[in-house]
Amino acid sequence: MDYQNMTLKDLQKDLIVEARKGFPFFLAGTVYWLVMGILYFFIGDQQVLALCYLLGTGSIFPLALLLGNLFKLNLLSKNPLGVLGGIVGGIQAFYLPIWIVIYLENYELLPMVIGVLGASHFLPYLWIYRSKTYGIFTVGMAVVSFFLGYVIEGHAFLTLPFILSALYLVTACALIKESKAFITEKENVTM
């Protein structure tokens, strides 16, 4: 692919088709939050459970790549906007020290902090993929994470992961729908 001679809109269109707006990352997030919610019923010590949250974050990226391969998508595109998306996603590596400090100082807040900071890194994809879904998801995830993870005591480990899992799943479905509509429209224009 000759990316250097493509317009910005063409790069966006190419990436949307190639990566289907990154929906496998939301399926991986769905699994992560669902597993964290289920672990609540098996791990009685919330500090140990918080450690599972912390360590479990490392599973999301490889699981998304695996799901992307299963759907025959290229989530590691050489498209310059795909590279930008990778850099944006890599921002989360800088959250790790914050998550570790929260775990050590006040582990009860870890689900909320993972939720809010995780939400923040999705905002640039609103522009990269030309998707309102990313904007809605980012704001929704941040508000839900803050509200259930901090404002209402006792819901960070019990309710928050299940709500976020559902939010991730709805977002994945919305991105799949957006991608299909975009591809159908693109095919109709080229005919």
From TrEMBL:
InterPro entries: DUF7010. It comes from the Bacteria. The chain crosses the membrane at residues 21-42, 48-71, 83-103, 109-127, 134-152, 158-176. Pfam families: DUF7010. Keywords: Membrane, Transmembrane, Transmembrane helix. This is Uncharacterized protein. It comes from Salirhabdus euzebyi.
